[in-house]
TrEMBL record:
<dbReference type="InterPro" id="IPR002932">
    <property type="entry name" value="Glu_synthdom"/>
</dbReference>
<keyword id="KW-0472">Membrane</keyword>
<feature type="domain" description="Glutamate synthase">
    <location>
        <begin position="148"/>
        <end position="477"/>
    </location>
</feature>
<dbReference type="InterPro" id="IPR024188">
    <property type="entry name" value="GltB"/>
</dbReference>
<comment type="similarity">
    <text>Belongs to the glutamate synthase family.</text>
</comment>
<keyword id="KW-0812">Transmembrane</keyword>
<dbReference type="Pfam" id="PF01645">
    <property type="entry name" value="Glu_synthase"/>
</dbReference>
<dbReference type="InterPro" id="IPR027283">
    <property type="entry name" value="YerD"/>
</dbReference>
<keyword id="KW-1133">Transmembrane helix</keyword>
<dbReference type="InterPro" id="IPR013785">
    <property type="entry name" value="Aldolase_TIM"/>
</dbReference>
<feature type="transmembrane region" description="Helical">
    <location>
        <begin position="12"/>
        <end position="32"/>
    </location>
</feature>
<protein>
    <submittedName>
        <fullName>FMN-binding glutamate synthase family protein</fullName>
    </submittedName>
</protein>
């Protein structure tokens, strides 16, 4: 026995047995032809597979464990599904919990979304949050909550819902997914952001309101060399469907990273929407060519507002270097030109596929980015002129309420509306093999997604979420979500201590930045580094730190 283990280790036993079985099945088939060829073919195939594994040199595990290694590959390939369906808890967010997904599915299907037997959340765990209720509650009749964008500054201001579809391009999402999203937006009278892939015929067909996002590739408004085309922009912006224009500076999924749609994926439909040649690589640079400085960005905003006939124009970004955002704000003061709105995208977003390092470790999370933007605009007396939107894992009414309390005027959601379409969170968006037809260009896969049915689900998800928001606001004794403030949100900071968010986060007073530099370390360090004339720091971080230390 010891001799056999030396000559043929146990890890080769499967291969050895299949070989013996193959020989035995050959003999039996020769003696008794009625047993058929199936055992011969199966055992012969396994024997051949074991031989190929043993003699190949690319994978050590196959060479050491012929045949058996393939079971590892099989289980590894379905590991996410095994974890999601059998091992994951209902409250484990990776990146969305089963409880969060089920809430969306129920509201999208317009079925009961109530839950019995108490909360599954650990109310004594760190960072647990809630809103205190009122004895004197309010009954809110109309849950169609809205905010006006561009009022007093635009010829065509827009009344925007407090909950809208975040930027997701045709090309990233399937044609049927875009049709369903826009149909839902049309039914619910809320807005659908096109993503930087521009306006396709699938956006136009249902007729829902659009926020046209313009990225660094200027898709839909570009010259053949990839630079901005005022004429093409004006032609597209004239559409009655286009309600707002959004300049994308960066996105939460991959801030500071450009993109490329390979030539093989640039179909005629995608080429028509983006204004690029069919069958050529479609490149999104990592930065814009239409402006190089914060002041030029403000001038570009003014140009787009004029070319669009007075429609609201804003910017979207994931906050990076604080001095760059401060530079943009200083440019607003210097030019007296302001965007009509700013959308803060969180690093915890989004639907786009990205390198792992960008997804996990680049960009500011939404809460911190939103608070910084809100504080800075308040400190410069600009908050009344610039509305703030926010995006980043916002799928429930409480998510919306918390985000509004932190300083936002409205919220966007990408993955929430993907769940409404039937997304299972298989996390295969970048492969083209989406099992529900949401994030794929495969005709066969996307035919499973019925735009009529899923459009209704998008509508119901939006309506039922805002209805739940109205119930939360009324229970808190408020008449409208725009009355939410940081002191309405309570956060547990330890087992024995809770605090209002207003006590945890310092908020600036109106005009404070115009009078002096606040004591907050972010402003002490980075405000003096910013300049309206450039995105580059006016002084180095080391010099800024020295000046801050001298003040102390």
């Amino acid at each position: 026995m010891h001799f056999l283990r030396v000559i043929m280790p146990l890890r080769y036993l499967t291969w050895l047995l299949s070989g013996f079985g193959f020989i035995a099945s050959l003999v039996l088939f020769w003696l008794y032809p009625l047993i058929g060829t199936t055992p011969v073919l199966v055992l012969g195939g396994l024997t051949l597979l074991g031989a190929l594994d043993y003699f190949q040199k690319k994978q050590a595990i196959r060479r050491n464990y012929p045949i058996l290694a393939h079971f590892r590959f099989l289980f590894e390939s379905i590991r996410p599904e095994i974890r999601q369906y059998f091992l994951e808890s209902d409250t484990e967010e990776i990146p969305f919990s089963r409880a969060q997904r089920n809430l969306v599915y129920q509201r999208a299907k317009n079925v009961v979304d109530k839950r019995a037997y108490g909360t599954m959340a650990n109310v004594y765990g760190d960072d647990y949050e809630w809103i205190n209720h009122s004895i004197h509650t309010k009954h809110i009749e109309n849950n169609d909550f809205r905010v006006t964008i561009g009022e007093g500054n635009c010829a065509q201001p827009y009344s925007l819902s407090l909950y809208n579809i975040s930027a997701m391009s045709f090309g990233s999402l399937s044609a049927n997914a875009i049709l369903a999203l826009n149909k839902g937006a049309k039914l619910g009278n809320f807005a659908h952001d096109t993503g930087e892939g521009s306006i396709s015929r699938y956006h136009r067909e249902p007729g829902g309101d659009l926020i046209w996002e313009i990225g660094s590739g200027y898709f839909g408004c570009r010259q053949p060399d990839g630079t901005f085309s005022p004429e093409r922009f004006a032609a597209n912006a004239a559409s009655g469907q286009v309600k707002m224009i959004e300049i994308k500076l960066s996105q939460g999924a991959k801030p500071g990273h450009g993109g490329i749609l390979p030539a093989a994926k640039v179909t005629q439909e995608i080429a028509d929407a983006r204004g690029v040649p069919v069958g050529e690589d479609c490149i999104s640079p990592s930065s814009h060519s239409a402006f190089n400085t914060p002041i030029e960005l403000m001038e570009f905003i003014a140009q787009l507002r004029e070319l669009s006939g007075g429609k609201p124009v804003g910017i979207k970004l994931c906050i990076g270097h604080p001095w760059e955002f401060f530079a943009i704000c200083k440019a607003m003061i210097k030019t007296n030109i302001t965007p009509d709105y700013i959308v803060i995208d969180g690093a915890e977003g989004g639907t786009a596929a990205a390198p792992a390092e960008f997804t996990d470790h680049l960009g500011t999370p939404m809460h911190e980015g939103l608070i910084l933007a809100h504080n800075t605009l308040v400190g410069l007396n600009l908050r009344g002129r610039v509305k703030l939107g926010a995006a980043g894992k916002i799928v429930s009414a409480f998510d919306i309420a918390r985000t509004l309390a932190l300083g936002a005027d409205w919220c966007n959601s990408g993955r929430g509306f993907m769940f409404a379409l039937g997304c299972l969170m298989s996390q295969t968006c970048h492969t083209g093999r989406c099992p529900t037809g949401v994030a794929t260009q495969s005709w066969l896969r996307q035919r499973a997604l019925d735009p009529e049915d899923k459009g209704n689900r998008v509508y119901y998800f939006h309506q039922n979420t805002l209805k739940a928001l109205g119930e939360i606001i009324g229970a808190a004794g408020l008449a409208h979500p725009n009355l939410l403030r940081p002191h309405h949100i309570v956060r547990r900071v330890s087992v024995n201590e809770v605090a209002l968010v207003s006590a945890l986060v310092p908020y600036l007073q109106p005009g404070e930045l115009l009078k002096h530099c606040p004591q907050h370390p972010v402003y002490q360090l980075f405000w003096k580094m910013s300049q309206a004339e450039s995105f580059d720091p006016a002084i180095t971080p080391a010099e800024a730190a020295e000046r801050s230390a001298a003040l102390v």
